[in-house]
Amino acid sequence: MSKILFGQSYYLRFDPKLWEAMQPYPPLGTLYAASVLRQQGFDVALFDAMLAESEDEWATALDREKPRYAILFEDNFNYLSKMCLARMRQAAFTMIEMAKARNCRVIACGSDASDNADAYMQRGAEFVLIGEGEETLTELMEHLTGRGSGTLNSILGLAFQSKGELTINARRPDIKDLDALPFPAWDLVDVPRYRRIWLERHGYFSMNMVTTRGCPFHCNWCAKPIWGQRYNARRPRSVAAEMRWLKDSYAPDHISFVDDIMGLKRGWLAEFAEAVEHEGARIPFKCLNRADLLLREGEIEALKRAGCQIAWIGAESGSQKILDAMEKGTKVDQILEATRRLHAAGIQAGFFLQFGYPGETMEDIERTLQMVRECRPDDIGMSVSYPLPGTKFHLAVKSELGQKQHWVDSNDLAMMYHGPFSTEFYRQLHVVLHKEFRARKTAGQLAGGAKISLRQLLALPHQTLTLPFARWKLKQLAGQPHHGTDALPPGLDPEAAARPTPQI
Q1: Helix (H) or strand (E) holding 7
Q2: Helix, strand or coil, per DSSP, at residue 42
Q3: Helices in 280-319 by DSSP H: which ranges?
Q4: Strand 127-129 vs strand 105-109: parallel, antiparallel, or unpaired?
Q5: ∠ at Cα 100 (97, 103), nearest 5°?
Q6: Residues 53-62: pLDDT tens digits?
Q7: Secondary structure E strands in 317-446
């Protein structure tokens, strides 16, 4: 059987903020796809871009493996893949061209490819998998290798060129029985390297898992090119069995559940806690959830029993006006109460915050800052409203977008439509938010007698002394006129502009 080389285009090295944080996870979605094909008897290999220095390492892998088929199967569980960052798109195009130069047949799958199949084909991809991918890929490979009797037109979820025209077949239904999928192909990953990095940088080793696919909620800024509004969940016992397998095989100290929402179905978390106890699979973990779901009876207690260390909440804003405009479906009071209950149960709380939504005022921003002060989350992440194709938000502001329609990396924070304030304002808001958060957190830990690092202790005076000036600068930026998008100058290639200066 002709060898298949899997890869993906998210390079941690090309995302400076996250490279500095250095909390790498292998591409879980890619590992699932590789495992599915291998189960069907195909010979597979993996190129893991996460820790690679550049696309040159992909070229080396191509020369080493000499595959007949090169498959760029993005990690659909990595939210940064859904954001379609410009630097990663450029990496994908470069990788496609490298594979084509070696006479590989190239297949692409991922959020950006699903939204822009024609762009990927123009760069050399022969086929694009629209949506989830695994079953479409299996049928396609059976067709290409002569094992299947169907035609390309009969393969659901497939895009390809036919007589010079783009053909996109009907979308394939999502996989409902997720437990029928094999466990991810972890044996293809250089696990010792990941372990070494985690231990050196953080003192523990974390691995990633997923219990669900999709999200049924209607936040109007959230792009869902893979699963849409659909939602499927694994059985708690299957997840616990995988945890036990990882524990026996790789001995992680921590698990990161990368679901959009873990435990959406009522009673799922309680069953999961029981299964974890039955399997002897308890490993401290972090997960993502919603404030309103956490307030259901017994949910937080079940998280605690199962081993939850920190629950991240998509808080977004401390302004009810903004939450309602986003169609978030949650209340500010629910965020406050969920955080209080998490802390009472001994579980940390993390907040995802989003600024820059249409109609936002300084009063709305201050409400969010005040919510952070009152709730005292244990960690925070900040983003700026990002118009992604397929969302109601994108449709509403599409006419306002300039040439730059994708962030270069996760720390870009560009205001790409006629937003409330300028890009410089939101980048400064990021500075103010984190200075205040870190200073308050460290001061609170000191007051409570908690152990803190030397780095935290040394940073506290600087954060405290520079915060007033940072706030003053933010106020000045708020008063400056903002005339619309931070578009690139006319005639400048946005893809070329996305390429960073080479790092020495």
Answers
A1: strand 4-7
A2: coil
A3: 291-294, 299-306
A4: parallel
A5: 160
A6: 999 999 999 9
A7: 348-355, 379-384
- Nearest-angstrom CA–CA distance, 456 and 462: 10
Question: Is residue 288 a contact partner of residue 259, using CB atoms and an 8 Å limit?
Answer: yes
| Distance separating alpha carbons of residues 400 and 394, to the nearest angstrom | 10
* Residue corresponding to tokens 């996305």: 498
Q: What is the C-alpha separation between 42 and 145, in angstroms, rounded?
A: 10
Residues in the chain: 504
| pLDDT class of 70 with cuts at 50, 70, 90 | very high
What six digits make up the tokens of 222?
């959230």
pLDDT top residue among 218 and 481: 218
For residue 390 the two structure tokens come to 């397929």
Contact 242, 209 (CB under 8 A): yes
Give strand pairing partners of 254: 206
Give the separation between CA 324 and CA 333, rounded to whole angstroms: 13
Q: What is the CA radius of gyration of the chain?
A: 23
Label the pairing between strands 165-168 and 158-162.
antiparallel
**Distance, CA of 346 to CA of 444 (rounded, Å):** 16
Residue 57 burial class via C-beta count within 10 angstroms: exposed 0-12, middle 13-18, buried 19 and up: middle
- The CA distances from residue 486 to 16, 401, 490, in Å, are 21, 9, 12
Contact 80, 410 (CB under 8 A): yes
Query: For residue 323, how many other CB atoms are within 10 A of its CB?
Result: 22
Q: What is the mean pLDDT of the chain?
A: 93
Calculated CA dihedral for residues 312, 317, 319, 322, nearest 10 degrees: -120
Alpha-carbon span 409 to 86, nearest angstrom: 7
* Both structure tokens of 311: 């629950």
- Note the Cα 342 to chain centre separation in Å: 24
Give the max Cα distance, the chain: 71
pLDDT tens, 472-488? 999 999 998 765 554 43
Both structure tokens of 154: 């009969």
- CA–CA dist 84, 342 (Å, integer): 33
* Tokens 């300039």 found at: 402
Q: 133, 73 in Cβ contact below 8 A?
A: yes
Question: Could you tell me the pLDDT band of residue 148, with boundaries at 50, 70 and 90?
Answer: confident
Q: pLDDT tens digits, residue range 240-292?
A: 999 999 999 999 999 999 999 999 999 999 999 999 999 999 999 999 999 99
- Angle CA(45)–CA(127)–CA(97) in degrees, nearest 5? 70
What pLDDT is stored for residue 498 in this prediction? 36
For the record, the structure tokens of 72 come out as: 């760029």
Sign of CA dihedral 300, 304, 306, 309: positive
